[in-house]
Amino acid sequence: MDVMKPTLIYIGGRCYRKMPFEQKIEHNSDRVPKQHESPSEQLDWENDEACDVSESIEKTERGYRLSVEIPSPLFKFILGRRAETKKKIEKETNTQVTVPRQGEEGDIVIIGSHRSGVVGARSRIEVIAETSRQKIPFTHFLCFPLYNSDLARKMDEFKVKVLEDCFECRGINASIFQLPTKIHLTVGILTLLSDKEVKNAVDLLSQCYQDLVSKWLHNEPVVVELKGVECMNDDPSEVDILYAKVLVKDNSDRLQLLANALVDTFVSAGLMKREYDRVKLHATVMNTKQRDDPGGEETFTKKSRGDAAPRFKKRTSFDSRKVIKSFEDFSFGEYHLDMIHLSITGVFDSQGHYDCATSVPLP
Questions:
Q1: What are the DSSP calls for 136-166, one per residue?
Q2: What's the pLDDT tens digit per position in 64-116?
Q3: What is the DSSP letter of 222?
Q4: Cα(150)–Cα(152) distance, rounded to whole angstroms?
Q5: How far is it, in rounded angstroms, from Cα 121 to Cα 17?
Q6: Which residues fall within 8 angstroms of residue 269, CB to CB, at 6 or more apart?
Q7: Which of 74, 87, 233, 363 has its CA 20 to 30 A from that of 255?
Q8: Torsion angle, CA of 196/201/204/205, rounded to 10 degrees?
Q9: What is the pTM of this model?
């Protein structure tokens, strides 16, 4: 690592510089560095430096006290198995860390005799939380919804023709076709783990969209055509998801620029992780996640009585080569994009559309 260009970690609007160090044996400690420890485990957390030094640390009779706001679904990662992770943080930073009990909400409280130790414990907790968040399935997504009866009709036509013309293609059956009520253009995904995080996302979309729409759409409507299909992996013979291509009718890049700007805004606010350099606008039309006849392996777990019960089903891909070639000119129709939605994953309204945490209009 170049000490003049250390690794930067952005968490909660703060920027941390991670500096290497040579671990030494202290007289008051019997701990010695172990050869099998990774470099990240040998970081001196007490010397972590936050670029934002406006810490809300309280001076008490016991030393220093700091509260860390972490969503409760992440508490288990801070604790670790048998609270081993928490104990390690306490030992290496010479602090006491209190995590709310299971089922309870609240802040994680850090108490220590040295300010540097409290700051180090806080930074380690936030790094663990931020890393662990990636292990939790996303809860919301930004999208341009496509609610239209013409799209439902075209999807039914596409489904019938694919089943007739490509029936011999491996892995294709009626269950993997997307329901028309769920079709949308995905902008980005979010993992929001508390009411506060959801509110922050709702407020951010409400605050930024007018400026972004004015800047990138020039307050003019956007009409797209869904035409042809494609996959995003390198092997079209082994596909889990097939997308309809998105074509803007005026051949401009206005929609692309708006989508990129939305992601930039949410990434800068710490509410979204950047996956790609630019948004890949797409509308899913086939997805093996919906398959009701996997035709593949199942993983079993033993019950106490010795019975074998299915634990999960392995996704079975399909061969999309003939579909992509045969339907390269198939049009799913033209549609005016009139809304941006912050949708909730896995929750649907009475019409079968994804439930919406908030929405904003487009021209």
A1: SPP-EEEEEE---HHHHHHHHHHHHHHHHHS
A2: 999 999 999 999 999 999 999 999 999 999 999 999 998 888 999 999 999 99
A3: E
A4: 5
A5: 15
A6: 200, 204
A7: 233
A8: -150
A9: 0.77
3-state secondary structure of 284: strand
Looking up tokens 């390269």, which residue turns up?
Answer: 328
**Whether the Cβ atoms of residue 120 and residue 326 lie closer than 8 Å to each other:** no
Quote the CA–CA distance of 41 and 49 in Å, as a whole number.
Answer: 17
Tokens (6 digits) for 362: 């487009």
H-state helical runs in the chain: 75-79, 84-93, 115-133, 149-165, 195-212, 254-268, 321-326
Residue (of 286, 320, 297, 311) closest to 175 by Cα position: 286
Q: How many other β-carbons are positioned within 10 Å of the β-carbon of residue 71? A: 17
Secondary structure class of 237 (helix, strand, coil): coil
What residues form DSSP beta bridges with 60?
63
Token representation of residue 266: 């949410």
Radius of gyration of the chain (CA): 25
pLDDT in tens, 112-159: 999 999 999 999 999 999 889 989 999 999 999 998 889 999 999 999
What mean pLDDT is predicted for residues 309-325?
Answer: 80
Unique residue bearing structure tokens 């990636």: 134
Q: Are strands 140-145 and 184-190 parallel, antiparallel or unpaired?
A: antiparallel
The position carrying tokens 């045969």 is 326
Which SS3 state, helix, strand or coil, does residue 307 take? Answer: coil
The pLDDT score that the predictor gives to residue 315 is 85
